[in-house]
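User: Let's play a game. I give you a shape written as tokens, and you guess the letters that built it. Ready? Here's round one.
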């Protein structure tokens, strides 16, 4: 499916929280490039927010060093449901060259559930934008599941 088609189902703005769990900052620089005027991801209603409590999507870079494990779990738990997680870069997806390092608890999917992987070292901004659009689809599916579930009052009756 083309990214434009994913964006057609976007019912509201998508707010994204970025977490660096031990990356080399290569992926972080590419994420910043997506909000520059050249790519202007905010034209799709997506913007980076400063707190996970306001975010729909968690964008994680890095292989998750031991120092960040508890923090990453806490950030994930602070986000309201429904939520989606995107891993940007090879390090977050598999550990890449740091895979056997003594200081890693990652990759990210060992710590928290992941919905979308954006591979690359670092991935290009176009790939990151495509990953965010895939997260829109995952988020809408989760939102539909939440709406489809019976409310607590209906279960009691």
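Assistant: Ready! My guess for every position:
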């Amino acid at each position: 499916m083309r990214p434009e088609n994913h964006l057609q189902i976007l019912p509201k703005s998508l707010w994204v929280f970025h977490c660096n769990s031990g990356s080399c900052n290569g992926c972080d620089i590419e994420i910043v490039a997506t909000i520059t005027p050249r790519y202007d991801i905010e034209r799709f209603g997506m913007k980076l927010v400063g707190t996970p409590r306001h975010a729909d999507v968690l964008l994680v870079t890095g292989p998750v060093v031991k120092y960040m494990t508890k923090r990453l779990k806490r950030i994930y738990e602070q986000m309201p449901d429904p939520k989606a997680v995107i891993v940007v870069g090879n390090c977050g997806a598999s550990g890449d060259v740091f895979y056997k390092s003594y200081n890693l608890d990652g990759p990210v999917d060992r710590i928290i559930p992941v919905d979308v992987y954006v591979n690359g070292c670092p991935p290009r901004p176009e790939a990151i934008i495509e990953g965010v659009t895939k997260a829109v689809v995952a988020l809408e599916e989760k939102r539909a599941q939440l709406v489809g579930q019976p409310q607590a009052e209906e279960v009691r009756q």
